[in-house]
Amino acid sequence: MNICALIATRKASNRIKNKSIKKFDGSNLTIIKINQALNVKKFKNIYFSSDITELNNYAQKKGLILIKRSKKHLGKSTISDFSAFLAKNVKENHICYLINTCPLLKVSTIEKAIKTYKKLDFSEFESLNTFELVKDFLWNEIEPINYKLGQQPMSQNLSGIFKFNPAISIISKKLMIKYNNVIGKKPYKIFIKKPESLDIDTIYDFKLSELYYKKRKII
Fold this sequence. Notes:
Elements: E1 3-8, H1 29-39, E2 46-49, H2 53-61, E3 65-66, H3 79-87, E4 94-98, H4 107-118, E5 127-134, E6 161-172, H5 173-179, E7 187-191, H6 203-215
Parallel strand pairs: 1-2, 1-4, 2-3, 5-7
Antiparallel strand pairs: 4-6, 5-6
């Protein structure tokens, strides 16, 4: 089974200006992720897609295969706006989508995910994805959703809610096109914990992740 890596990023960023190229411990989030993928020796090819020239040049220099996206697949587009397009531009039948906003993810975790994916019963699971187990007191608009108001347990005894964390997503090319997403309807869950699971969305996440990264060089 041949699995490729796919990294996609864009110039636009709503909460952190130029997040993909913003200085992060002397580098940036995208270069860190590219080098991390290169350290995983299980990928047939590594594909890269961006509208940022300096990142495309770096990726090409490192031997990655570039996928050019049109304007409609950039800007404020979400994964469901461009995942099928990206999948159609890779040769391999299985894709490991790596997001650049999780710099604390370990290479060993990626390798474990690939090894596990190759052994999956695909009649039971459609993808492999990283998740976090959330044990917080969660409410919808009107009531608690994971405990009873008059019977509040200790937080460690709460029924877990599974939060999809986009650090790693492995799925077949066929299903990525079908669902226009990197997660299937029946995902196999690999659980990751903080700090490894930190996904940068705000400047607070950025600073916290950089602090951890400086203390434990992943690459």
